[in-house]
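Rotation project, supervised by the postdoc (A.L.). Task for the rotation student: set up a whole-complex structure prediction and record inputs and outputs verbatim in this book. Inputs entered:
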Amino acid sequence: MSYSFQFGEILANGDLLLRGLKLTVLLFALAFSGALVCGLFIGLARGSARRLPNLIATAYIELFRNTPVLVQLIWFYYAMPALTGWQPTAFTAAALGLFLNTSAYCAEIWRAGLQSLPAGQWEAGRAIGMSEWQLLRRIVVPQAIARMVPAFTNRGVELAKMTSIASTITVQELMYEAKMLSTQTFLPLETFTVVAVIYFVLIYPGTLAAYALERRLNSKGA
Amino acid sequence: MQYVWDFRPVWLNFGVLLEGLVNTLKLSGFSIGLGLVIGLVLALGRLAPTRFLSIPATAIIEFYRNTPPLVHFFWYFYGLPILTGISLTPFAAAAAALSVQSGAFFAEVFRGGIVSVERGQWEAGRAIGMGHAQLMRRIILPQAFRRMIPPLMERSFELVKTTSLAATLTYGELVYKAMVLATQTYRPMEIYSTIAVMFFTVLFLASLGMRAVEHRLARRAAR
Amino acid sequence: MADATPVLAVEGLRKSFGPNEVLKGIDLKVGAGERIAILGSSGSGKSTFLRCINFMETPSAGRIVLDGAPIGTQGRGGVLAAKSAELRRLRTRVGMIFQQFNLFPHMTVLENVMEGPVTVKGLKREEARAKAQDYLKRVGLAEKADQYPQRLSGGQQQRVAIARALAMEPEILLFDEPTSSLDPELVGEVLDVILGLSQEGRTMLLVTHELGFAYHFATRVLFLHEGRIHEQGTPDEVLKNPGQERTQAFLRRFSAFHF
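Outputs recorded:
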């Protein structure tokens, strides 16, 4: 059983994959940057003592964490238009789904990070008359962020992997182009091997960074 | 615009959706079982004293943890038959991809648990003349097992969600059944919302169960 | 003290945590320049009392009146409710020093002191810097301005915390057991700074276990017991000739205390 690999033909179509890769990166950047910010507000609501914001945030987080992201993307692309009359493009639906999904996970990271700060820091800020927003911006977030970076990096790794699911709702990102290429060239083995390696090369540095950050954090004893 | 809900297509075809859910759980159960075996092998490989085992095991773990599962689904379904001459059914390809990928994650849980057992335990075992394998089996794994349970369960929930990708290989799990129904009945809103609720119910109940288990473990450990 | 409008008036102050009523009705008028030492055994409610004054804890009932103007309004069930903007104004006028210092670890000593004036009061950085350096000099730590708090001793950290409170130029200073988490050899430097402030005629309230210091520091001493003011008077009256049995028992436990 000797199969002769034909990677040459795949590499010759590198521009196709590169085009897909650009969309993958864009999808990732939009969803991740949005989720980091949005996660803070959901996390604040989740940690709030007030009943209603807490309830809404909890429901949101549990809903998005306990359903497959594929179902979420399908829902935004195929189901939501029936309800709202607004048909997003595949890219918009994917970006929206990934953004909301990652926000739910980021919210939990924010909540844990904010709670890890000693109560005295909040009190000291309040005692000099800071508003809640000033407290967050000047005192709480700058201190909590270092502790949360490894967790956010891990989340980024998960999101990067998730972007591939956008191909199932016809977003022409890397995975989608790979499927096209594999049927055009009749070389699925080579195509998916190359694409797996591309993803690995993109994502693994993130994982390594998370390891390193975690080690540094542990050695600092923070 | 006022949307008129119509859940009749859902009720009329609920049997189909249930069948899909059963297939989802079948695929999950099978892949969790096989994944645990693969994970244990990979973890022991990574921790093995010889590099001939630890390097390949580490490579497999890191590769599968840092690539999208969807790529592996396609690789096993479309690519592997070319290499081996044996074509896999959608179920087999999905189960293979899921087992190896979650095996890589399980392996890290196992390794974390094993490493967390304090040095003194290893030394005590060696001091009474135990070999590496004996030490693992008799001393380390029994102690590590308890603290592995919560992360193993969490990883298993992730796997259940990932089984939905088997729809792309036309395996008849819940999402695939829903897609077929949605095109037949033109009721995507009701159908996709229903399966979201079904997934949520299964996973949320499971995670409540997990919290109860964790609580019990913590109580037992405190005693 | 009695005739002019008090700088601070506390009327019928109550505070409960769940079913547990910690403060059971406290009335107090503080005149300008008064220095009040608050004593009491642990659980007497003395820290809670201090923390209610600047709304670190929201009072369950009663009134806090600053310069004749009450803070907040009586809400449901008599609980005080204040808008956050009003609370912020209150806190710029009433400074607080904590037992645990609570310096901001991600800022240098100088930045800690500048933070309030710049962020809250909107001062220009240059102006705030000059002022902060001034206050650091006042607590004897000018040369530590560019250090991070973790590098300082507990006593030094607490002096920075005092400078941070002073930089807001508050009308009243609240000290919540400022030396309780310090090693004994570091207590003196903090107390010296506080005594120095009392020479400036500032209005101060201090919760402490240091009876000797309270004697020298205070113009009036309060003894709290079970959420009420059990006895009050000049340091000589309360600390040397207490009228109440509880106060005597409390003082006896500090046998090693000299004035």
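Student's summary: The first strand of chain C starts at residue 8 and ends at 17.
Supervisor addendum: The two ends of chain C are 26 Å apart (CA to CA).
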